[in-house]
Design brief:
With about 290 residues, the protein is mainly alpha-helical. The chain is built from seven helices and no strands. About 70% of the residues lie in helices and about 0% in strands. It is elongated. The two termini are about 40 Å apart.
């Protein structure tokens, strides 16, 4: 899943559900900034994923091209082999027929490229000629057969490679999809960082955010209020969720997206969406 890939890409997900704990003593949070909070890093990771996928795709394309060439070669060898077999059989048939029937010497001499021959010498020479012709034809057939076997072996190896490359290509596509999602979330966080600075709001720490989530929903990203008005870890109203670019039910959004859109909401409105006489008290006082 994409969310699982996000966790792998950027460390421990801050949005995993926590069924207990004291809001006054929040959990320790990693100091390292996850990829979905660092746009430059997220974009670099995406470029790497795209490059890796391109390499696998190129390997697949080369393999398919080689396979098509080898298949064409095998087809040509098959036709050559068949043609040589037929020519050899026809030559044997004609030569033996003329030898047995004692046919027209001049006609047969023409076939063999012989200009003159007595009957006895001609018949003796004919036996030697037949042997040489057959040996040459057999050698040619053996050469074609050997090349055909070697080509078939190469085709087998290429066919065995294709499933492996397909598996790698599937993994590469999954990595690109995950990296694109990280960039998408990182862009929201980057927007929140810039707007927070422009509006002069004090950036909340991860401890602030954890305390706020615990107060609002006991850190449950799938929470829905009993009255059906508030959703997710930050208890978004649907219309408020939409003002920061969210779609659908906030409680159905991945934790990283809920975190990013909560930061963007704070960057635009401060703690106003979370009243200070209730959960908003866990946010910085601006």
């Amino acid at each position: 899943m994409v969310v699982a890939s996000l966790v792998a890409a950027g460390g421990v997900a801050l949005g995993q559900s926590d069924s207990g704990g004291d809001a006054a003593q929040p959990v320790t949070v990693e100091s390292a900034i996850p990829a979905w909070r660092d746009l430059d890093r997220a974009q670099q990771d995406l470029e790497s994923a795209l490059g890796a996928r391109e390499s696998v795709q190129m390997a697949m394309d080369r393999t398919m091209d080689e396979l098509h060439l080898e298949l064409a070669r095998l087809d040509k060898l098959h036709n050559t082999d068949t043609g040589q077999q037929l020519l050899m059989e026809e030559a044997e048939r004609l030569v033996v027929q003329e030898y047995i029937s004692g046919g027209d010497v001049e006609d047969f001499a023409f076939i063999l490229g012989v200009s003159e021959a007595t009957d006895a010498l001609w018949r003796k020479a004919l036996l030697s000629e037949i042997s040489e012709l057959v040996d040459e034809a057999l050698d040619a057939v053996d050469d074609v057969s050997g090349e055909r076997d070697r080509t078939g072996a190469r085709i087998g190896r290429l066919n065995d490679t294709i499933p492996y490359l397909n598996s790698r290509l599937f993994d590469a596509n999954q990595s690109v999809e995950a990296a694109e999602w990280v960039v998408y979330i990182a862009e929201i966080n980057d927007m929140a960082d810039r707007e927070m600075a422009q509006n002069g709001f004090i950036p909340p720490t991860e401890r602030h955010w954890y305390n706020l989530r615990f107060c609002e929903s006991t850190n449950n990203y799938t929470a829905e209020s009993a009255n059906g008005l508030f959703y997710g870890a930050y208890q978004f109203e649907p219309r408020t969720w939409r003002t920061v670019g969210g779609t659908g039910n906030p409680a159905h959004a991945p934790p990283e997206e809920q975190d990013a859109r909560a930061r963007l909401l704070y960057a635009r409105r401060g703690d106003q969406p979370w009243p200070r006489d209730y959960c908003g008290r866990w946010l910085p006082a601006n």
